[in-house]
Amino acid sequence: MGGMDSPHVPAVGGNDERRMKQQTDGIPFVMRILVLTNLYPPHYIGGYELRCRDITEALHARGHEVCVLTSDHHISKADPEPERSYPVRRSLKLHGFFGHPWLGIHNLQSQEQYNNSTLMAAIQQFEPDLVHVWNLGGLSKSLALTLQRLNIPTVFDVSDHWIARSLTADVWLDWWNRPQGSLPSRLLRGVWQINGTRQRWDRTAPTNPVQHLRFSRIYFCSRRLRDITEEAGYPVHHGAVIHCPVDIERFQGQPKPASAPLSKLLYVGRLAEDKGVLTALKALHAVRGRFKGSLSIYGHGDPCYESMLKDYAATYELPVTFHHATPAQMPEVYRNHDALLFTSEWEEPFALTPLEAMASGLPVIGTTTGGSAELLRHGDNALTYTAGNARELAAEILTLEEDNLLRARLAATGHAEVREKFPLQTIATQIEDYLQESLHSWRVSSLPQYQ
């Protein structure tokens, strides 16, 4: 009987007296925000974590009190932990992601209980008005069920496919609720159901099916990602769309004049099959003898795949060089090139690389898979082509090289649009407003019984 006999926690998710007093005094309400996420810089993998940090620090700079609860995962080559004026608690445990092992049900039960107890302790100590959930990839999804059980105002920021594609694969929740499975698993579940083990464990680590999760307050980084999540069976069409931001103070540069030649193309991103890097190399091979420029590739990837790309470039004697750069070096990298090739072939939620390039004054040739279609418009602020089609990409490279006026116009339009619509502080305001609205509109909900 899930949802019963839950451990006592103090009243949270409102701090109503403090809020009412601030509103009565005409003072903007200062939120106490607990940020829950799997990774947090300097230990991070990609843009999701960087955006989480940027928004968290922007909210903190506006006077809101923040506390970050994240995993203890460490990246060996990460920068030193910076000094912060807000706490970052690296105490949660990951499961099956980023090199962490998959656990059997007994060991997993201990980790689920530990993660949920850690969340409960953070709530008791910090007493947040609201929990801001970011990426739960690799973390216990039962944490979201615990928040629902507590009825604490919770807002989900969704900037990748962890709900649409990973939620049902959560080992803990799937093990308890799968209709089939091995005979030993079914027998063990039956025994634990009868003797009260499930009920006892459920008090600290919910075992409900994922269908019991309610995302009453949720926003996505693109309409396409919201649609993908809805298509996966989650009723989230009410969710807001708040696009990803770019730090225009870091990424700044002026579009080059029409008289400037197109000679240095740029690729930035993971070196992986779904990012379309090989398509870029094939396009460069297709324009040999007609395009005299070069391509710089900045990124990391699987060593075998990276080696294949280098072998391809060497075999066809392509003017391609491979590089690595730190985040601090990337603004200069953009400014030292003439155009970005954004070649992604998967359903990008809403890519940061084109935003950074446009803010830096570069024209972009890109695909429109996923949320990218909400940014790139062919012939207006970019040139676009069909993902995976090297011939189309080659044709767009030649178009960009030959039409100087078009190249300058695309760069100027993209530059102005990104700096107007996507600055970090503009997006931070949209998120701040959504969090405030979530507190004011929060309605009592409950976690159903697990059976």
Can you give a write-up of this model?
The chain folds into two domains: 16-245 and 426-441, Rossmann fold (3-Layer(aba) Sandwich), CATH 3.40.50.2000; 264-421, Rossmann fold (3-Layer(aba) Sandwich), CATH 3.40.50. 40% of the residues lie in helices and 12% in strands. The chain contains 16 helices and 13 strands. It is globular. It starts with 15 loop residues before the first helix and ends in a 10-residue tail after the last helix.
Q: Which tags fit this structure?
A:
Rossmann fold, single chain, 451 residues
Question: Could you say how many structural domains there are in total?
Answer: 2
Tell me the radius of gyration: 24 Å
Total count of helical runs of at least 4 residues: 16
What's the CATH architecture name of the largest domain?
Answer: 3-Layer(aba) Sandwich
CATH-assigned homologous superfamily of the largest domain: Glycogen Phosphorylase B
Largest sheet: 7 strands, parallel
Query: Which geometry do the CA atoms define?
Result: globular
- Strand order of the biggest β-sheet: 3-2-1-4-5-6-7
Report mean pLDDT, rounded to a whole number: 92
The structure class reads alpha/beta
What would you call the quaternary organization? Answer: single chain
CATH class of the largest domain, named: Alpha Beta
Query: How helix-rich are the residues, as a percent range?
Result: 25-40%
The total count of strands amounts to: 13
C-alpha termini separation: 6 Å
The portion of residues forming beta strands comes to 5-15%
What ranges have pLDDT less than 50 throughout 5 or more consecutive residues? 1-14
**Secondary-structure element series:** HEHEEHEHEHHHHEHEEHEHEHEHEEHHH
CATH topology of the largest domain: Rossmann fold
GO molecular function: glycosyltransferase activity
Pfam families: Glyco_transf_4, Glycos_transf_1
Keywords: Transferase
InterPro entries: Glyco_trans_1, Glyco_trans_4-like_N, Glycosyltransferase_grp1
